Amino acid sequence: MKIGISHIGIYVPEKIITNDDLSKMVDTNDEWIFSRTGIKQRHIARKDETTTDMAIASVKDLITKSNINIQDVDFIICSTVTNEQQFPSVAALVQKELKIPNIPCFDVGPACAGFVYLLAIAESFIKSGLAKKVLCICSEKFSDLVDWTDRNTCILFGDASTAFIVEENPETCTILNTIIGGDGTYSDSLQTIKQESGEHFVQMEGTTVFKSAVRIMDEQVRTVCEKSNKSLEEVDLLIPHQANARIMTSVADRLGIKAYMNVQNYGNTSSATIPLALFDAMKEGVITKGDLVVSPALGGGFTWGATLLQF
Ligand SMILES: CC(C)(COP(=O)(O)OP(=O)(O)OC[C@H]1O[C@@H](n2cnc3c(N)ncnc32)[C@H](O)[C@@H]1OP(=O)(O)O)[C@@H](O)C(=O)NCCC(=O)NCCS
Q1: DSSP bridge pairs for 173
Q2: How far apart are CA 165 and CA 154, in angstroms?
């Protein structure tokens, strides 16, 4: 049974905040941000634009760019940690907008590892017969979780949404293997903290996250390749979770695999980074037919995982 991804739709908000813009808001500068993170700019949603609005926009892009009849979808799963309501889920609100009645839908919140978790869930549902065509969405409005007066965190994140179909006989790429894992003992290292104002802001131990991300993403790539009987030499491209260029370069150097990055344009958009990077890499012709692409991720929890994709 060949299961994989058919098409990717994307949405990024129009408004861009550059490093120079940030230097007018907090004590920082372009040189510091770019040299430490590789980020040049990030897209930020309007105040009144919700995670669901962005999710719907990415699904509409998916519909426009593919031959998919969205009414054939029989399951919707959204990865997000920025739902505007506790419930209903973003997935349910997307279902309402698309007018597809009587199909199951729910959200998951593995933060930055959301894309690989979604693949693992969707593939298992298809293998078990629970679903045939799963609409997967990664939609994150991190600008709501950022304290715009905290230079340690506000430089890192951006907003975006992506949507894709997981199904049998996929049109874009086949999933050779996906592995997922996690360790809640690291929960204090990357988390949101409730403020007196009632808002929740991201807080992290930057060095712990950095070192863990390099070590764990390296391990995940080796494990998913081994499980698929593929050597690291056979892998054409590494498309990791796009959090920080230095993390990605360290992982790529350890593995000896060329990395693709677009973090400079979007910052860290949490679960949306990998599908957004897959989309851009295909558009730019960096991924071509027959390529073997590996995508590891690590997020708050910690959660982690990796997927090996055959294009
Ligand atoms: C956040 C991160 C970029 C910081 O880089 P770093 O090289 O480790 O920098 P440090 O934390 O050592 O900070 C060095 C100094 O720069 C300062 N600094 C922090 N943010 C700054 C900014 N935006 N502009 C200027 N200076 C800044 C710090 O206050 C510190 O000053 P001090 O030495 O006087 O205390 C890095 O730790 C990182 O990328 N971590 C992983 C983050 C991540 O990817 N999270 C999401 C994962 S899903």
Answers
A1: 5
A2: 32
Nearest CA to ligand 1 atom 46: 243
Domains belonging to the chain, first-starting first, are 3-172 (3.40.47.10), 174-310 (3.40.47.10)
The token pair at 118 is 């979604």
pLDDT category at 1 given cuts 50, 70, 90 is confident
Options 105, 136, 154, 241, the catalytic residue: 241
Tell which one of 19, 152, 201 to mutate to probe ligand 1, the residue whose CB is within 8 A of the most ligand atoms.
152
Query: CA 307 to CA 300: how far, in whole Å?
Result: 18
- Tell if the pTM clears 0.85, that is, is over it: yes
- Tell me how far apart the alpha carbons of residues 148 and 26 are, in angstroms, rounded to a whole number: 8
CA 9 to ligand 1 centroid distance, Å: 33
Distance CA 242, CA 112 (A): 9
Contact 262, 245 (CB under 8 A): no
Q: Whose CA is nearest to atom 20 of ligand 1?
A: 152
The answer, yes or no, to whether residue 67 has pLDDT greater than 90, is no
Chain CA centroid to CA 3, Å = 20
Residues having CB within 6 Å of any atom of ligand 1: 28, 32-33, 36-37, 112, 151-152, 155-156, 204, 206-207, 209-210, 243-244, 247, 268, 299
Q: Is 174 in contact with 309 (CB distance < 8 Å)? A: yes
Q: Which helix (H) or strand (E) holds 293?
A: strand 292-299
Query: Can 7 be counted among the known catalytic residues?
Result: no
| Annotation says 268 is catalytic | yes
Residue 83 known to be catalytic: no
Per-residue model confidence as pLDDT tens digits over 169-191: 999 999 999 999 999 999 999 99
3-class DSSP assignment, residue 79: strand
